[in-house]
Amino acid sequence: MSKPKVIFICTGNSARSQIAEGLLRSLAGDHFDVFSAGTEPKGGILPEVQEVLREVGIDTSLQWSKSVMEYMGKVNFANVITVCADAEENCPVVFLNMGTHDHWPFDDPAKFDEEQRLESTRRVREQIEERLRLWLTEQSITPREYRQA
Questions:
Q1: Which domain holds residue 96?
Q2: Is 146 contained in some domain?
């Protein structure tokens, strides 16, 4: 039996959606096939995002910035979750009408002041993880403990 597919969408697919992808895969990857994409992908993941995920034991080496268009007409998602207002407004309607659609807005690490970017990105990581844990609990899924001591 195939697992439900979940996609996280933001604008650049360089921060929030990448964090959510890595976290959900670590928390409940045995329950879902997890994807992320951007409406205007930036072509890479922010170094601060890679760092804050590495801090909690998540390897981003198999993640990359990609466009929602890569999935258009090819993948049917059970859950579509937008993580920024711009993606909510600019996402192709076909995705928003697919499966269950949720909107979880988070601050954009790419817009943080450079001096505060790492600490602010950690805060966003924690906010996304908290929201994911709540979402999993709502679905009667116990999140896996993944953080390395």
A1: 5-138
A2: no
Tens digits of residue pLDDT in 92-105 = 777 777 789 999 99
Task: Clarify whether 33 is annotated catalytic.
Answer: no
d(CA 142, CA 41): 32
Domain containing 34 — which CATH number?
3.40.50.2300
Query: What is the rounded CA–CA span in Å between residue 38 and residue 44?
Result: 11
| Residue 91 designated active-site | yes
List the catalytic residue out of 7, 10, 23, 49.
10
The residue ranges of DSSP E strands in 16-60, in sequence order, are: 33-38
| Between residues 5 and 98, the one the model is more confident about | 5
Note whether residue 143 is domain-resident. no
17, 9 Cβ separation under 8 angstroms: yes
Position 149 confidence tier, pLDDT thresholds 50, 70, 90: low
pLDDT, mean of residues 68-81 = 92
Catalytic residue among 6, 34, 45, 84: 84
Domain-embedded: residue 65: yes
Count: domains in the chain:
1
Catalytic site includes residue 84: yes
